[in-house]
Amino acid sequence: MSNPGASNIQLRAFFYIDRMQPQYAAYFGTTTSGDIPVAGMAQLYVELAPGNEVFRIVDMALKATDVRPGVQIVEREFGMLEVHSESQESVREAGRVILERLGMKEEDRIRPKVASVQLITNVSPYQAQLINRSRRGHMLVPGEALYVLEVTPAAYIDLAANEAEKSADVRLIRLQDVGRFGRLFMAGTESDVRAAQLASIDAIESLNGVDK
Length: 212
What we know:
34% of the residues lie in helices and 28% in strands. The protein is built from six helices and eight strands; from the N terminus they run E-H-E-H-E-E-H-E-H-E-H-E-E-H. It has helices at 22-31, 53-64, 88-102, 125-132, 157-167, 190-205, and strands at 10-17, 42-49, 68-74, 79-85, 113-120, 145-152, 171-176, 182-188. The strands form two sheets. It has a four-stranded antiparallel β-sheet with strand order 1-2-4-3, sandwiched between helices. Strands 5-6-8-7 form a four-stranded antiparallel β-sheet. Helix 2 (53-64) packs across helix 3 (88-102) and helix 5 packs across helix 6. The chain is globular and about 50 Å long. It starts with 9 loop residues before the first strand and ends in a 7-residue tail after the last helix. Mean pLDDT is 93; it is low at 1-5.
């Protein structure tokens, strides 16, 4: 069935995570209100405007495949959905169905951009305490190196977090993937944090799309 408002839909984010890493999967489980995935599963993220479109898109994916829904969020400006499965093939099929029904291609998404990168070495005890008050992941220990990444559109920060964890022995402190910007906080030794920084930025900059 065609959608009369399809021409007004903006595909803000569209991407796959091939294999959820242990810390990232555990963190996701603390924030999701839907089905809880486990490490090793594949994911699909889609962010749209107007936000209400996510309800229809989630329905499409669930009826066409055996993926499970973890996120269905509509906030002030945008809507975001996440589905996951042990089968990468099922997740990719869900993405294919969604794009087909929208009349779009993967390349129609907004190309993600790195908005800000911060690397702080030898974090002070007082700053560590402030950050720990709002964290859901590991504690930030004074003296560690802290990496903070900000990207837009926000959903892409999940890809950055998973790729960073793949690349280095770092600890996930905080992840914010809803709103205009996404933010990632990771900690570890300076060398590990720098490796995570390179991997996460490369993951963002390797994606194509439309410049906005």
